[in-house]
Amino acid sequence: MTWLLNSIYLCLLLCATPWLLWRRVTQGRYRRGWSKKFFGNLPEISKSPTPEGQGGKTLWFHAVSVGELQVIRPLVERAERQMPDARLLITTATDAGYELALKLYSKHVVSYAPMDFSWAISRALARTQPDMIILAELELWPNWISLAVRRGIPVVVINGRLSQRSLEGYRRLGGFVTSVVRKLAWVGAQSTTYRDRFLELGLSRDRVDVTGNIKFDGANFDRESVQVQQRALELHLDRASDALASSDGGSGRPIVWLCGSTQAPEEQLCLDTFHKLAGSYPNLKLILVPRHPERFEEVARLIEQTGLPWVRRSAMATGQQQISEGVDPSWRIFLADSVGELRWWWGLADLGFVGGSFGSRGGQNMIEPCAVRVATCFGPNTKNFRDVVQILLESQGAMELSTPEELGPWVIRMIENSDIREGYAARGQNTALSHRGATERTWRKLEQLLMR
């Protein structure tokens, strides 16, 4: 079966080569890490003993991209505290993920992950010698799982989720997927729905538990945190008063509307909506945080076309506008063209729109704005966060909009009715607070498995 998988992967890679080359030339992607991806040349991790005479464990965390890297963060921090002698390897599959991993996990070994070719996986395992492989959410790579289990390395899935569409796709592959799933040592599922789907794939009941969603634990709940306050200072946003601007938008501190993790054409939708409201609400400011770095320049051009004063994070970071001096306080639109800062930008917002929900993406993380007390809305396509959305809608902690045309009226309503706005913000935060604890449940299980 291994040779067949390798052949299929090679054919797929060859077919995708023109597209990969086009993305490399036009967007600068897929230029790095090929020695690690294709040949498994990950950094060697020594098994030398500690001063106490015992070698610490090696934990391999794999997070495919930016979102998953934030998911594993509470567990990495827990490992640092509970297992100070452990060696931690963090791998990811995307350029944006790699850059963020270098920032978040600079104390540990960071690398691109090997592709699921048997030779790449074998070499990576030999060089890193992990005691456990921890996959974030769902990464069912047959060679990776099979070769690890053959070496006696337990493979677990944390914060596991499995959509109905994925389940149906895996079912079509029949017993092959079942044989892979049964090799998993354990799955910590986000909900009973996801647990039942793993069971349908053939995972035994004693190898899956409902742990909850770690994203509730990893979110920032503190609007007064140093990271948030520093950004407020840089952007001349007065967060000292809890009172928003008056209902007519005339006096008081700025009203900040943040549109986060957006994808095309959501940036244009948000800009059009803001442009219509900008004159009536002079204190309203817009922060745009596109999901993908390769679209930063495209979004910058869209902002430029509005004719409104704007600033971008990258200009501040490169010295074109010194961070210490802040920016021109008259700005109306701020482009957060950076990776890994969205959780802090949310702390500046009064109103929030979560992107990826007015297209085919399936939504992005709406826990973060709710956690930091932002009145939050999103579009109807949130299949990637179905359980979270259900929780938030049942508690009236967020609002789902049916069409893009509803976005403008929603913003106006939130600006002009502080009771409604504050009600959504408070209920959203309380809901997020009530669902914490997944990290603790997950960590306890990981410890049990490591002691076997």
Would you give an account of this structure?
- There is one protein chain.
- It is globular, with a radius of gyration of 23 Å.
- α3 (66-82) packs parallel to α4 and α5 packs across α6 (142-150).
- The strands form two sheets. A seven-stranded parallel beta sheet has the order 3-2-1-4-5-6-7, sandwiched between helices. The protein has a seven-stranded parallel beta sheet with strand order 10-11-9-8-12-13-14.
- It has 20 helices and 14 strands.
- α6 (142-150) links the parallel β4 (132-136) and β5.
- The longest helix is centred in the N-terminal third of the chain and has 26 residues, at 2-27.
- The protein folds into two domains: 32-45 and 56-212 and 437-450, 3-Layer(aba) Sandwich (Rossmann fold); 226-434, 3-Layer(aba) Sandwich (Rossmann fold), CATH 3.40.50.2000.
- It has 452 residues and is an alpha/beta fold.
Q: Supply the number of structural domains.
A: 2
Instruction: Supply the helix-strand structural class.
Output: alpha/beta
- Strand order of the main beta sheet, please? 3-2-1-4-5-6-7
Looking at this structure, what is the CATH superfamily of the largest domain? Glycogen Phosphorylase B
End-to-end Cα distance, whole Å, is 30 Å
Shape summary: globular
**CATH class annotation of the largest domain:** Alpha Beta
Rg, alpha carbons: 23 Å
Helix content: 40-55%
Mean pLDDT: 90
- Total of DSSP H or I helical runs spanning 4+ residues: 20
Detail the topology: elements first, then pairings.
Blueprint: H1 2-27, H2 34-39, E1 58-62, H3 66-82, E2 87-92, H4 95-104, E3 109-112, H5 118-128, E4 132-136, H6 142-150, E5 155-160, H7 164-172, H8 175-181, E6 186-189, H9 192-200, E7 208-210, H10 215-218, H11 226-234, E8 255-262, H12 266-278, E9 284-290, H13 296-304, E10 310-312, H14 313-317, E11 333-335, H15 342-345, E12 351-354, H16 367-371, E13 375-378, H17 386-394, E14 399-400, H18 407-416, H19 418-434, H20 438-450
Parallel strand pairs: 1-2, 1-4, 2-3, 4-5, 5-6, 6-7, 8-9, 8-12, 9-11, 10-11, 12-13, 13-14
Helix pairs in contact: 3-4, 5-6
